[in-house]
Structure formats: C-alpha cells, structure tokens
C-alpha cells in the first residue's frame, strides 16, 4: 500500500480497536490481506444491524445497542474511512451472519481479487 504510514496504521488500529471492544471474550479476530490489496478485519461479536451498517461511519454515531456498554466517542470508523478515501481506498462493512467484517480495498476493485 502506498501512502502515509502513520495514517494507514491508524486505519488498521481503529479497526482492530473496534474488533477487540465488540468481540466476545475468547472469540477470534481475523485479519487477512489479499492481493489488490484487500485487507479484512473480522470478529465474532454482536455484529451491526443492517440499518446501521452505513451509519457507523458517521462522526459521533454510536449504535444504540452498544452506546452505553462500550467506551468510545464514535469517531474511530469515521476517521478510518476518511483516511482510506484520501488514499484511494474504500472502507466498508460487509454482510455477515454473526460479528462484523470490515474491508479496506482499492476503490473500484472486486473483493478478494
């Protein structure tokens, strides 16, 4: 990945921070990197309801189900997406039966390629 190392590190740190916060104790957090590049951070936590999947990237937004249980200010994912977009990447939350799966990839690329 070409770009500002500190900023791109912040994206990964924010994604991992969320995975650790929302994952169930003892469950796995998976970080995968594929050609493209396509970076995925996935966990087995409570997941994000479909109607909130785009809202979690808004500044100061905190899901109603977790807002009172987990510390944070609702800026991590908004910042991560802004940094990604400045570097020509997209950051999205994929559909998943359980947990959350965030995907960082070059804009216009097909996931997994």
Can you describe what's shown?
- The chain has a four-stranded antiparallel sheet, with helices on one face.
- It has one domain (5-106): Heat Shock Protein 90, CATH 3.30.565.
- With 113 residues, it is of the alpha+beta class.
- Strand 1 (29-34) and strand 2 form a beta hairpin.
- Helix 1 packs antiparallel against helix 2 (76-86).
- It has helices spanning 5-22, 76-86, and strands at 29-34, 38-43, 89-93, 101-106.
Structural class: alpha+beta
Q: What is the highest CATH level, the class?
A: Alpha Beta
- What is the average of the pLDDT values? 85
* CATH H level, superfamily name: Histidine kinase-like ATPase, C-terminal domain
Q: Examine the coordinates and then state which fold CATH places here, giving the name of the CATH topology.
A: Heat Shock Protein 90
The number of distinct β-strands equals: 4
Our Rg estimate from Cα atoms comes to: 13 Å
Structure keywords:
113 residues, alpha+beta, Heat Shock Protein 90, four-stranded antiparallel sheet, 4 strands, 20% strand, globular
Briefly say what this structure is:
With 113 residues, the chain is α+β, with helices and mostly antiparallel strands.
List the helices and strands and how they pair.
Blueprint: H1 5-22, E1 29-34, E2 38-43, H2 76-86, E3 89-93, E4 101-106
Helix pairs in contact: 1-2
């Amino acid at each position: 990945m070409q770009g500002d190392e500190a900023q791109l590190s912040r994206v990964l740190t924010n994604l991992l921070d969320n995975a650790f916060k929302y994952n169930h104790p003892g469950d796995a957090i998976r970080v995968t990197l594929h050609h493209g590049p396509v970076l995925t951070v996935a966990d087995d936590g409570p997941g994000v309801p479909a109607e909130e999947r785009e809202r979690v990237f808004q500044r100061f937004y905190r899901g109603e189900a977790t807002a009172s249980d987990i510390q944070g200010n609702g800026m991590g994912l908004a910042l991560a997406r802004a940094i990604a977009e400045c570097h020509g990447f997209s950051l999205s939350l994929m559909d998943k039966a359980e947990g959350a799966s965030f995907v960082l990839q070059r804009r216009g690329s097909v996931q997994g390629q």
